[in-house]
Amino acid sequence: MRVSINDRDTLLAVSPAALPAYARSAGWRRQEQYRAHSDVYTGEELPEIVVPRTERLGDYASVVASLIDMFAKVAQQDELTVYRSLVTADRDVVRVRAGESDDGSIALTHGVDLIGGAHDMLLAAACSLGELKPVYRAGANRDAADLLERVRLGQPDQGSFVVTLLTPAISPTLTLFPVPDDQDAPIERRLTLRLMEALVATRDAVERTAAGDKGAFPEALESGVSANMCEALVRIVSRFTRLDVNVLWARTRPVTVHRPVVRFGRADASLLSEAARSLKERAPRPDVRLIGYVRLLTRAEAEEDGTIRLATKSIGRKLQSVTASLERQDYEQVVQAHKDRVPVVLTGDLERMGQRWRLLNPQLEEVLRDDGPEYR
């Protein structure tokens, strides 16, 4: 049965940027301006069409309806299929597809984890658009949260378990020749690029780690991989046998680099969980208070600041060595504490560097005179 789309509000949902983008992708090319707010498009063995550049035309909805009818006839598709392509033509469409079930249904809790995991994956990618970190406090990243607020949940595909995420509208490129990897893309496109970059890097790190490469996940941090991304994947693959993620790129801003479907399976869950735990260990621990003895003092000539090494049990049961760079006043007090063989209290953000620890933004809180033998 042939279905025509006539509802005005439905037709107005098609943006003026989507119409020429769709036309170009279907083989039409702009020839000349038509009146003040439209353009004439032609193509080889294609009918001539007039495409509006603004929705402020009084008959914009009827023009869109006519174009949908024409696009559908040329593509030999139904109008609903063409309409769905048009309303997403100026957006990247992220498709998160879970494994099939025997009876075409899934448990409600599994569905919640599928949508929640898809959300968390995109949020992890949004967080990594700023400073690259092994783990993010996603709730505290206002920019990432604001960007996710503009992402829409699209209609699911018939007969499958697919979460469809629609990015905010992506503006067309203003350059004649597309830049590889779209380096100057707006943040809406950079979000999708980073998501796929991080997923591909995660897939590669899983395979390398399984082959015995212990440095695969730390190296993948540069591609946006994080503990948050790994945990989001675990949330889905622990529920389903398979997870496929791919992107249908906005027609308004075509990509020049092919990015394949990224696939994960249930067998990857345990390794991803371990990777998340390991990456969390690399994250700085904020506002840590360390008590210990100074074991090493270093200050270069003509420098006022100095570096110390603190022996402490504040991190765990075993004695650990922590390096910290102190400003002149704190350093001189620590030098005296070292001479007096008394412990000191330092505060700051604790960061793991391989097998060593480093205290960032260190401050000397106090020098303890009533010390015990436990750090000696």
Structural summary, described in words:
The mean pLDDT is 89. The protein is elongated. Strands 5-6-4-7-8 form a five-stranded antiparallel β-sheet, covered by helices on one side. Helices cover 35% and strands 25% of the residues. Helix 3 (60-75) packs across helix 4, helix 5 (108-127) crosses helix 7 (187-210) and helix 5 runs antiparallel to helix 9 (227-237). Strand 10 and strand 11 form a beta hairpin. By secondary structure, the protein is of the alpha+beta class.
Order of helices and strands: HHEEEHHEHHEEHHHEEHEEEHEE
Structural class: alpha+beta
The rounded distance between the terminal residues' Cα atoms is 86 Å
Helix content: 25-40%
Biggest sheet layout? 5 strands, antiparallel
Number of strands: 13
What portion of residues belong to β-strands? 15-25%
The low-confidence parts are: none
Q: What do the pLDDT scores average to? A: 89
Instruction: Count the DSSP helices.
Output: 11
In short:
Helix content is 35%, strand content 25%. It has 376 residues and is of the alpha+beta class.
Give the helices and strands, then pairings.
Layout: H1 8-12, H2 18-25, E1 29-34, E2 38-43, E3 46-52, H3 60-75, H4 79-87, E4 93-98, H5 108-127, H6 142-149, E5 152-153, E6 162-166, H7 187-210, H8 216-220, H9 227-237, E7 242-248, E8 262-265, H10 269-282, E9 285-298, E10 306-312, E11 320-326, H11 328-340, E12 344-353, E13 356-367
Parallel strand pairs: 11-13
Antiparallel strand pairs: 1-2, 2-3, 4-6, 4-7, 5-6, 7-8, 9-10, 9-12, 10-11, 12-13
Helix pairs in contact: 3-4, 5-6, 5-7, 5-9, 9-10
